[in-house]
């Protein structure tokens, strides 16, 4: 057994004052922020970014020596969840937890430019879909070169960016990089694997936050809406829909929290971490289907309108569950790990022992 499995889990309680401050910033922002209509491309609000920068939130997990705030992934998860709850679309995760972390880990300098990560799939001219590529000031290109990887911090003007969006209008741009014309810094395979784990867990955290809000909005709706002389919440069919959605959301949250604790508690080195992240993504992916269906069913026609806030969460959950690996991909990872463990080791795999 890997000795890192025995590492004690760090405390996961986020400072209540920090959580309240984060929630307050996003709550104030949503009161005046414009709402993009379905199909419209979202551009991140630079004024909000500067406010978050002044509060030390845009590089929340970066080391203090490199200009970050020195916080943990637990605080980062709270920041991401708060942004989801308030419908704020901004590249916090891509900048801090992926691009910033990668540059800092390999020892490259980090300035105040907003960044995202492009993971090129092959040598030569490479094409890949990159979150927020057309909106940021720098793109961190990670590309395979023979039997290793190289990292290059490039200006978007030096690559070809074709605009694209996901289901909720967040930029998911096609980036073409002429890798023959750039040089980079060597990156070990383990660091690349860790980057992929971090990216996958980020989306699980965001999906869970969106599902929880969709369930909360549905509970508020059925408690206040009256049909045939009594609240919708009194009808057994409605209760079943709500309870099923809440149960799926809770399962996804439990699996994601377990993966997060394993990752942070072992420094992202646990031999069971890949299985825990795959489980979290699988649970979150399937929960998105149940919660979306049930939430819209209890809302009826009003839940499909642009003016209603429900779609802010359901469409987001459906968009994010397919990024950094599809639901089918993560299902296959869970199944493969279970088969490889066998009957005698399956419980140890699940429990992380």
UniProtKB/TrEMBL annotation:
Keyword Oxidoreductase among record annotations: yes
Molecular function in Gene Ontology: acyl-CoA dehydrogenase activity; flavin adenine dinucleotide binding
Keyword terms, alphabetized: FAD, Flavoprotein, Oxidoreductase
Listed Pfam families: Acyl-CoA_dh_1
Domain of life: Bacteria
Record domain Acyl-CoA dehydrogenase/oxidase C-terminal: where: 204-322
InterPro entries: AcylCo_DH-like_C, AcylCo_DH/oxidase_C, AcylCoA_DH/ox_N_sf, AcylCoA_DH/oxidase_NM_dom_sf
Cofactor: FAD
Protein's recorded name: Acyl-CoA dehydrogenase
Originating organism: Mycolicibacterium neworleansense
Lineage: Bacteria, Bacillati, Actinomycetota, Actinomycetes, Mycobacteriales
């Amino acid at each position: 057994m890997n000795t890192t499995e025995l590492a004690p889990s760090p405390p996961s309680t986020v400072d209540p004052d920090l959580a309240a401050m984060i929630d307050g910033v996003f709550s104030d922002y949503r009161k005046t922020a414009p709402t993009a209509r379905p199909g419209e491309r979202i551009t991140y609000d630079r004024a909000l970014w500067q406010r978050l920068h002044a509060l030390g939130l845009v590089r929340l997990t970066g080391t203090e020596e490199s200009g970050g705030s020195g916080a943990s992934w637990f605080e980062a998860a709270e920041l991401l969840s708060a942004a989801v709850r308030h419908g704020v679309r901004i590249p916090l995760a891509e900048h801090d937890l992926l691009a910033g972390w990668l540059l800092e880990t390999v020892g490259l300098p980090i300035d105040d430019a907003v960044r995202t990560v492009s993971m090129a799939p092959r040598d030569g001219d490479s094409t890949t879909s990159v979150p927020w590529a057309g909106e940021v000031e720098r793109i961190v290109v990670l590309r395979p070169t023979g039997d290793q990887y190289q990292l290059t911090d490039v200006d978007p003007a030096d690559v070809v960016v074709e605009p694209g969006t996901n289901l909720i209008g967040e930029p998911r741009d096609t980036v073409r990089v002429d890798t023959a014309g750039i040089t980079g810094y060597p990156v070990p395979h383990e660091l690349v694997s860790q980057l992929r784990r971090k990216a996958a867990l980020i989306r699980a955290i965001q999906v869970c936050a969106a599902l929880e809000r969709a369930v909360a909005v549905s509970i508020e709706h059925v408690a206040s809406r009256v049909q045939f002389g009594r609240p919708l919440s009194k009808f057994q069919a409605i209760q079943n829909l709500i309870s099923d959605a809440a149960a799926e959301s809770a399962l996804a949250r439990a699996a994601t929290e377990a993966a997060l604790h394993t990752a942070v508690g072992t420094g992202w080195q646990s031999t069971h971490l890949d299985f825990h992240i795959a489980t979290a993504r699988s649970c979150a992916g399937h929960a998105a289907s149940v919660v979306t269906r049930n939430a819209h069913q209890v809302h009826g026609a009003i839940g499909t309108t642009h003016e209603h806030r429900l779609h802010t969460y359901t469409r987001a959950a459906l968009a994010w569950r397919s990024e950094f690996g599809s639901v089918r991909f993560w299902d296959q990872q869970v199944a493969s790990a279970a088969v490889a463990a066998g009957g005698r080791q399956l419980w140890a795999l699940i429990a992380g022992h």
